[in-house]
Amino acid sequence: KAAGFPARKTLEDFDWDAQPAARQQIAGLASGGFLLEAQNVVLLGPPGTGKTHLATALGIVAARHGHRVLFATATDWVTRLTDAHRQGRLPQELARLRRYGLIIVDEVGYLPFEQDAANLFFQLVSSRYEHASLILTSNLPFSGWGGVFGDQAVAAAMIDRIVHHADVLTLKGASYRLRGRGIDSLPS
Ligand code: ADP
Ligand code: MG
Q1: For 72, left (φ over 0), alpha (ψ -120 to 50), or beta?
Q2: Closest-lying ligand 1 atom to the alpha carbon of residue 54
Q3: H/E segment holding residue 135
């Protein structure tokens, strides 16, 4: 698992009946063309709707196309950038990460960021803008990102750069994890 994927999940494993609206868009992305144009992918939706699964599957596609890929949670990325910043090597770290054709940032929104962390994350997004792809997943719509980053202006500037060249998919419905378990819904 050199790329850091939490589990091996592929497009072939995905049950499209659970997310019929996403099928065509994902099929388009599966050609890998988005990586050549430094396009981003944003997967939004409630827990268990397949965001991490699809982000991983697209990461595997990217690796198959010969791109270098790194997967980590938003919290892990912030830890990594904070360490680099403390050691005075943030520019070098951002330059190194730009050599990865795809960086996946999973779970934006589960944990809020400190102001410093939000600024570091903004720098990651800026450094990749029109240069290399990002895939982000979040349980929150963009309107909720200001609360995560603790600053509406930073969140707005970041979303602007992410979405300028991006496919945004909103997954819907009940958690796939709860299927057949007699649980109707999660708190929302
Ligand atoms: P999320 O990241 O949106 O919370 P995950 O992608 O982790 O959800 O999905 C939760 C679990 O359900 C994983 O084991 C995933 O492989 C599986 N899963 C979710 N949606 C589907 C689907 N449409 N087809 C097959 N497996 C799915
Ligand atoms: Mg997930």
Answers
A1: beta
A2: 6
A3: strand 133-138
> Rounded CA gap, 92 and 94, in Å?
5
> Is 175 in contact with 48 (CB distance < 8 Å)?
yes
Domains within the chain, CATH numbers bracketed: 28-170 (3.40.50.300)
Ligand 1 surroundings by CB, under 6 angstroms:
9, 13-15, 18-19, 45, 47-53, 176-177
Token reading at 35 = 């990586």
Residue nearest to atom 5 of ligand 1 (CA): 50
CB 150 within 8 A of CB 109: no
Where do we find the tokens 């603790």?
Answer: 150
Report the SS3 class of residue 133: strand
How many angstroms separate the CA atoms of 39 and 89, rounded?
Answer: 27
User: What are the pLDDT digits (tens) for 22-78?
Assistant: 999 999 999 999 999 999 999 999 999 999 999 999 999 999 999 999 999 999 999
At residue 1 the predicted structure's pLDDT band, cuts being 50, 70 and 90, is very low
Q: How far apart are CA 21 and CA 37, in angstroms?
A: 24
Q: Which residues contact 145 (CB under 8 A, 6 or more apart)?
A: 108, 109, 138, 155, 158, 159
